[in-house]
Amino acid sequence: MKHLVVLTGAGMSAESGIKTFRDADGLWEGHDVMEVATPEGYAANPELVLDFYNQRRRQLFEVEPNTAHFDLAYLQNHFKVSIITQNVDDLHERAGSNNVVHLHGELLKVRSAFDSNDILDWKIDLVLGDKCAKGYQLRPHIVWFGEDVPMIEKAVEVCETADLLLIIGTSMQVYPAASLIHYVPKNTPVYFIDPKPAVTSKTNLMVIAENATNGIKRVMELLIAQ
After folding, report:
1. Catalytic site includes residue 104
2. Alpha helix positions (H), 121-211
3. Which residue in the list 69, 92, 102, 104 is annotated as catalytic?
4. Mean pLDDT of 27-55
């Protein structure tokens, strides 16, 4: 069974009603990302940051996976599918995908501010005073700007074993995620679905300038026909 590696970004979840991480004006849900997505922002105003992610977490329970999420899950019937996502929602898992690497963390998890490996499932609001078993404040399990991306090495290992690469809903401009395309074996077929694709120099590249739900229908036919 061929190994299909899928890289997904904000455009994958946008059609479910989840807003993209950062609008053109540099704001995320009306906030400067430096206030709500950096260690410095958290240190300066932890209550603001916790409330911001509480709102995002609540929003997650109001949306559902879209057909693109379900289509990727269906491809597990034909391929070994590994999904590497920049998204912090759980829509891939809810649609049935069972092998998902979250590069930027997960909204439905929190971790100890002292030990980044002390991670807990979390579905309610997180407030000051919520602590880990060792007595340290819990924080969102989100990779903020300026922090290491602990899952990048795992993602690289996955890409190195790809027979096929599918990119959906990401500009491929944010590093280190954007570098992953360079780790797939030479001559690996690459399918890139995005309304405004930015990758043009890769060989064996097919660009589908569509949104996720429309573009994946076209790619599925091509993949399954192989």
Report:
1. yes
2. 152-159
3. 104
4. 89
